Amino acid sequence: MDKIFLHGMQAQTLIGVYEWERQNKQTIVFDLDIGIETPQVPTDDIGTTVHYGDVCARVRADVAARDFLLLESLAEHVARFLFESFDKIVWLRLRLCKPGILPDVREVGVEIERSRPAPLGRVSD
Ligand SMILES: Nc1nc2c(c(=O)[nH]1)N=C([C@H](O)[C@@H](O)CO)CN2
């Protein structure tokens, strides 16, 4: 498995448990590591990998149109969204930080690690 990463990616979404957080979108910082199927034969073809620009654009557009209470829910949603949107992704680690949310704390956030769910088998399998 090879990995692609997007670290320090900023995205806007409506998130938070407090009323004052429900008024405006906040910036969330994503550290995303993506494991992809490694081509059996090395190629120089963008079609054999995952375009990190597409990942960035798709995630930003998706979360901008949604709202969440917890960072945990946002992380779980993004993990599922990535598996559904990019069939070459087999594993991911996602760390989300809310910058400046607690005084005198450098970084606050959550981290999850997920593998692509196995496809559902047929009843006769
Ligand atoms: N485990 C979590 N704790 C907290 C979250 C969260 O998303 N996950 N969120 C908040 C508030 O929304 C925070 O942004 C303001 O302090 C508090 N704790």
UniProtKB/TrEMBL annotation:
One of its GO terms (biological process) is folic acid biosynthetic process. The keyword Lyase applies. Pathway: Cofactor biosynthesis; tetrahydrofolate biosynthesis; 2-amino-4-hydroxy-6-hydroxymethyl-7,8-dihydropteridine diphosphate from 7,8-dihydroneopterin triphosphate: step 3/4. Residues 4-114 form the Dihydroneopterin aldolase/epimerase domain. One of its GO terms (molecular function) is isomerase activity. GO terms for cellular component: cytoplasm. It catalyses: 7,8-dihydroneopterin = 7,8-dihydromonapterin; 7,8-dihydroneopterin = 6-hydroxymethyl-7,8-dihydropterin + glycolaldehyde. Keywords: Folate biosynthesis, Isomerase, Lyase. The keyword Isomerase applies. It comes from the Bacteria. Its EC number is 4.1.2.25, 5.1.99.8. PANTHER family: DIHYDRONEOPTERIN ALDOLASE 1-RELATED (PTHR42844). Belongs to the DHNA family. NCBIfam families: folB_dom. This is Dihydroneopterin aldolase. It comes from Conchiformibius kuhniae. The lineage of its organism: Bacteria, Pseudomonadati, Pseudomonadota, Betaproteobacteria, Neisseriales.
